[in-house]
Design brief:
Two copies of one chain form a homodimer. Chain A is an alpha/beta fold. Chain A is about 30% helix and about 25% strand. Chain A folds into three domains: about 280 residues, Ribonuclease Z/Hydroxyacylglutathione hydrolase-like (Metallo-beta-lactamase, Chain A, 4-Layer Sandwich); about 150 residues, Metallo-hydrolase/oxidoreductase (Rossmann fold, 3-Layer(aba) Sandwich); about 90 residues, Ubiquitin-like (UB roll) (Roll). Chain A contains 16 helices and 28 strands. In chain A, helix 10 crosses helix 11 and helix 15 runs antiparallel to helix 16. Chains A and B meet through helix 11, helix 13, helix 14, strand 26 and strand 27 of A and helix 11, helix 13, helix 14, strand 26 and strand 27 of B.
Chain lengths: ~550, ~550
C-alpha cells in the first residue's frame, strides 16, 4: 500500500502579487485528490505584455488531473482571486464554493463569460464544513478591503492547514466582519495548525495596520471644507470606503453620484448579499449635472490611472456630462500600485492644469491598506502557532522577508514559489517536485500561452518597426515587376531625406537583378532579402527592423 | 522706434521633469537676441515611446531664428540638461558655454556624435561675466548631485534674472561647491532680481533637505557590518556619492571596483577637471574576480533598473566575471524615479531569489536628493526676494504648488509651461504668445517628430498585432493565385483551433472570387480587404489587428 501524502502547490501568487491559485492534494503519490484555492488574474502592461487584457495562471497541471479535482474554493471577490474563474472553469469543471457576496460577484462574472452561475455554491462561514474528498474546509471570516473575505481552515488526514487568504487585523472595518483574534485562537486550540499559508503583501510595512474606521473623521473633515465639487476614487470593491466617502458627502449636504460600472455592481452586490443594509442615497449622472457643484460628490473608478476609467476620462475632459473645474477637489482614497505611477501622475497633472486640487494618501489620512502589516503578521503567527509558516501572496522579496520575520520569533518558514510542490506530510515541509508553470494571456477572446511568441513579436515590432517585402517571381525564378516595400512604425526617410521604402526597394531590385540560384530557394531568398533590408535600414536610420517577406511564385497557366 | 522687451520661453522642462531647455530674449518684438539655457533629453519608455532611445525638445522655433541666437549656456552635466547638445547643436550653431567639469563631459558627448568638442568654451564662476549680445551672464556655484552645478545670473537691460538651475542647499556636499547663502544675498543686493526661474522638483518634500555628508556614517556602518560582497549603485554622475561609497569600502578593508562605462567616465572627468583631487584606488574587474568577496565592493550603474546596466546584468547572472551570491549585500544608494519601479523591483526580486540582501533608501539613511525641498525653496525665495517666482523643472503639479508656496510668503508667482512665452519687461509678467512646441525622438540614428505617427503605429502594432495581405491581380483585375496572409503578433489559431491566417485567406479568396468593380479600384480594394480581415479577426480572436494590404497588378509584357 502506498503511503498517503499531503501536498501544496502554488500555481500563481507565490513570487508575484496577483493571479492567486494554490493547490492542495491528499492521497497516494500522483493520485492525490485535489482542491484549488482561488483562480485569480493579474493585469498586463505595455512594457511586458502589450495588447494583453488579462493574465492568469497556466493550469495545465490541473487540467491533466481534472478527474482528481474535488472542488475550487474562492476566498474573496478581488480580481486577483476570482478573475480567472470564468475563463478557466471550463478546463477544471469542479464544484466552486464561495460565501454569499463573493458568489454574487462570481456568478455575474461567469454569466458575462457565458458560463452558468450555478457552478458556484454559496456557503456559510464556520461552523459550516464543506467536505471535498479527503478535505474538510471551513470559511473563517477575516477583515480585508472587500466584504466577506475569508481564511480557510483546511482539515486533512495529515493535519490542519490554515490558508489566510488576504487579511488585515481590523477590529472596526465599518462594513463586513471584524478581525476576531479569538476565532483564530479557537481554531489553533482545536487542532494544532500544521502550516499557515500566509498573506505577505505588507511584510515591509513596519507599523501596525490601521483600521478602516480611522479614515472616517479625516475624510469627513476634508469634504466638509471643500468648496467646489468633490470627486473621490477608490477600488470599487472597497465597499466600506465607498460608504465612508458617501456618508462624508451626506453630512456635508452633498448628493452622491456613483460613476463607473464596477462601482454600481459592487454596491448592488453588497446590498443584495446583506453585507450592507443600505447604501446612502445616490443620484444618477443625468441628475448630477443639475446639482450645484458645491453640493455634489462623485465617486469614480480609476484609482490606478486606468485609461478608460472615470477618473482618466475626467482628466481628459467630460465624462457622462460632468467636468472638473478650478476649485474642485479630487481625492485619491487609494494607494498607487507600483508600476501604475505614470498613469496616476498623468491624471494628477491634468487636474493641476485645470486648477483642481488633488489630495492623495501621502499623509496617511485618506487611505489604509487591506493587508496585514509586519507587526500584524507577527501577531497572527503567535496566535496560530503553526508548525511552519509558508508565505504566499507576495513577490519573492516579500516571501523571503516573511520567512525571516517568522524565524525571528522562532517559527519555521519555507519559501514555495509558483511551481514548487511541497510535501507537508512529515514534520517539516520538503520540496518534492518542480512543476513547469506559466501564464496564460487573454488576448481579445483568445487564451494564449505566455511563451507562444505572440507578445514577443509585438514587443519586437514596437521596438524595431516592421518592414514588409513583396516579391513576385515567374516560373523561371525571374522577378515579375519590382520588389515592393511597406514600412510601418519606422521613420519615413533616412539619410539625406531619402524615402526609406524607396531606398529599400532600390537595393532589393539590384539584388533581384543579380539573379542566381538564391531566387529558386524560398528559405535562402527569404534570408537574403531580410539581410538586404536590415543592411539598408541600419545604414539609413540606424535600426534593424522586423522584416516579413512574401515571395509569390506565379506558374504559367 | 520699437520698444525692447525681455522674453522668457521654456521649450522643455516646464511641465515635465526632463529635457530642460529655456530661452531668454531681449530686443524689439520678433527681433529679440536670444540665449538658450540647457539642451537636455528625457528617456523613452515602452508605454508611450517604444523603441525610442532619447527624447528632446523640438527646437524648431529656435532653428527658424538661428541667426538671433547669441549663445547656449549649460548649467550642469546631467543628461536632462546637456544630453541633447550633440544632437541639436547642428540646428542651432551657437557658441556653447559651460564650466570645466560640464565642458569635459559635454565635449566627450559631442565627439561621440561626430561634433567638434571645441564648440564648448570653458568658463569660470562669478565674477567672470560672459557677454552674449544684450545679456551678461555669470555662473553662480550651487550644490547639486553632480559637481559644478550652477545657477545663472542673467543681466539684461530690462533687469536681472536668476535662473536657479538644479540646486540644493547643501553646506557640506563633500565633493564640489557648497551652498553659500551669502553669494545669493550678494547677487540680490547688487541689483534687484526681477524674476527667479526656480527648480521645483522637490516642492512636495516637506522636510528640509539633508546634506550629502549625513550619509557618510550610515553607509560606512552598513558596509562595515556586511559579511559577503557589497555592491552599491547610484547615478554615475553623483561623484560625491561614489567617493562616500568608495571610502566606506576602504575603511572596511575592501577593494573597490567600478563597473559600467558611465562611472569610469564621470570619475575621470572629476579628476581631470580638478573637482576631485583623486578618487580612492580602484581595481579592474579582472582583478576583482580574485579578491575574496568579503574584501570587495562593486560600484555599479543601473540604479533605475535599466535593462542593460550592470545591476540588471548582475541580477540576471554574471557580469564581467562577477556574480552575486547568498549573503551578499546590494545597496540602492538612490531613489527610484516614478515609472521605473517595475524595473527596479525586478532586480530586487532576482537578488532575493539569490539570497542577496537588498537595502534601499526607504529609511532615508543611504540616499539624499539633489534638489531643494519645500523649506529650502522658501529660504531661497526669501534670500533672493525676486519680483516674481517662475517655477521650472517640474511637472504641472510641481509648478502649481511652487507658485502656491511663493504666494504663501507674499511672492508673486507665474506658471509658464513649455511653449508659453512670457514678456518680463513690465512689473509683472504677461503671457504674450503660445509657441507650438513638441518633442523630437531619436530613433536609431533618425530624429523624428513626436507627431510623425511612427510611434503611434508601433503602439498600434504592439496592442493589436499586424496582418499583411498580398494579392496579385492580372491586367483584367482577375486574381492571379490566391490571397496570402501573414500574421505577426497575433494568436496562431482562432475558434475551434483553426489557423487564423488560413481562415483569413479563405474569406479573402471568397471575396476575390466574387469579383466586381471593387477589384479595379486600388483604394476601394484596400479598404474592402481590410474590412474582411478585421471581421474575420474579430470573429476568430476578438481583436481588430493592424492591416497592411499589398496589391500587385501585373501587366502583360
Amino acid at each position: 500500500m502506498t503511503a498517503n501524502r499531503l501536498i501544496y502547490l502554488p500555481l500563481g501568487g507565490a513570487g508575484e502579487i496577483g493571479m492567486n491559485c494554490y493547490v492542495y492534494g491528499y492521497g497516494p503519490e500522483d493520485k492525490e485528490r485535489l482542491i484549488v484555492v482561488d483562480l485569480g488574474v493579474t493585469f498586463g502592461d505595455m512594457e511586458t505584455t502589450p495588447g494583453i487584457d488579462l493574465i492568469m495562471p497556466d493550469v495545465r497541471w490541473l487540467e491533466e488531473r481534472q478527474d482528481r479535482i474535488e472542488a475550487i474554493f474562492i476566498t474573496h471577490a478581488h480580481e486577483d482571486h476570482i478573475g480567472a474563474l470564468g475563463h478557466l472553469w471550463p478546463r477544471l469543471r469542479a464544484k466552486v464554493y464561495a460565501r454569499r457576496f463573493t458568489a454574487l460577484i462570481g456568478r455575474a462574472k461567469l454569466e458575462e463569460q457565458g458560463q452558468p452561475g450555478t457552478i458556484i455554491t454559496t456557503v456559510e462561514a464556520r461552523p459550516q464544513v464543506i467536505e471535498a474528498g479527503p478535505f474538510k474546509v471551513q470559511y473563517l471570516p477575516v477583515a480585508h478591503s472587500i466584504p466577506e473575505s475569508a481564511a480557510l481552515v483546511i482539515d486533512t488526514p495529515a493535519g490542519r492547514i490554515l490558508h489566510s487568504g488576504d487579511f488585515k487585523l481590523d477590529p472596526t472595518p465599518l462594513v463586513g466582519e471584524a478581525w476576531r483574534p479569538e476565532l483564530f485562537a479557537e481554531v489553533a486550540a482545536e487542532k494544532p495548525v500544521k502550516a499557515l499559508m500566509c498573506d505577505s503583501t505588507n511584510v515591509f510595512s513596519t507599523h501596525a495596520g490601521r483600521s478602516e474606521a480611522t479614515l472616517r473623521d479625516p475624510i469627513r473633515e476634508l469634504v466638509q471644507k471643500a468648496e467646489g465639487m468633490v470627486v473621490a476614487t477608490t477600488f470599487a470593491s472597497n465597499v466600506a470606503r465607498l460608504v465612508t466617502l458617501a456618508e462624508a458627502a451626506q453630512s456635508a449636504g452633498r448628493s452622491v453620484c456613483l460613476m463607473g460600472r464596477a462601482m454600481k455592481k459592487m454596491v448592488a452586490a453588497a446590498v443584495e448579499s446583506g453585507v450592507l443594509a443600505e447604501f446612502p442615497k445616490v443620484v444618477a449622472p443625468e441628475e448630477a449635472e443639475d446639482i450645484p457643484r458645491q453640493n455634489l460628490m462623485l465617486l469614480v473608478t480609476g484609482s490606478q490611472g486606468e485609461r478608460r476609467a472615470a477618473s482618466a476620462q475626467l482628466a481628459r475632459g467630460k465624462y457622462l456630462g460632468m467636468e472638473m473645474k478650478e476649485g474642485d477637489l479630487f481625492l485619491f482614497s487609494s494607494r498607487t500600485i507600483p508600476g501604475n505611477e505614470r498613469g496616476v501622475l498623468r491624471i494628477v497633472n491634468a487636474f493641476s492644469e485645470m486648477g483642481v486640487d488633488v489630495v492623495d494618501e501621502a499623509n496617511g489620512l485618506y487611505h489604509v491598506s487591506g493587508h496585514a502589516n509586519r507587526p500584524d503578521l507577527e501577531l497572527m503567527h503567535s496566535i496560530v502557532k503553526p508548525g511552519v509558516v509558508i508565505p504566499m501572496h507576495g513577490e519573492h522579496r516579500h516571501l523571503r522577508e516573511h520567512v525571516k520575520l517568522a524565524a525571528s520569533k522562532g517559527f519555521d518558514g519555507e519559501i514555495a514559489t509558483n511551481g514548487m510542490m511541497l510535501d507537508l506530510t512529515g514534520d517539516s515541509p520538503e520540496v518534492t517536485e518542480y512543476i513547469e508553470t506559466g501564464r496564460l494571456y487573454l488576448d481579445g477572446t483568445a487564451l494564449i500561452g505566455a511563451m507562444d511568441g505572440v507578445v514577443r513579436d509585438r514587443i519586437r515590432m514596437a521596438l524595431n518597426g516592421h518592414v514588409m517585402i513583396t516579391i513576385i517571381l515567374d516560373e523561371n525564378d525571374e522577378p515579375l515587376g519590382e520588389a515592393w516595400a511597406e514600412i510601418m512604425g519606422l521613420p519615413e526617410t533616412g539619410k539625406g531625406a531619402r524615402p526609406l521604402a524607396e531606398t529599400i526597394e532600390e537595393e532589393l531590385n539590384e539584388f533581384l537583378d543579380r539573379g542566381g540560384k538564391v531566387l529558386s530557394d524560398d528559405d535562402k531568398l527569404d534570408e537574403a532579402v531580410r539581410r538586404v533590408v536590415r543592411q539598408v535600414a541600419v545604414e539609413e536610420i540606424g535600426k534593424k527592423p522586423e522584416v516579413t517577406v512574401v515571395v509569390s511564385r506565379l506558374q504559367a497557366d
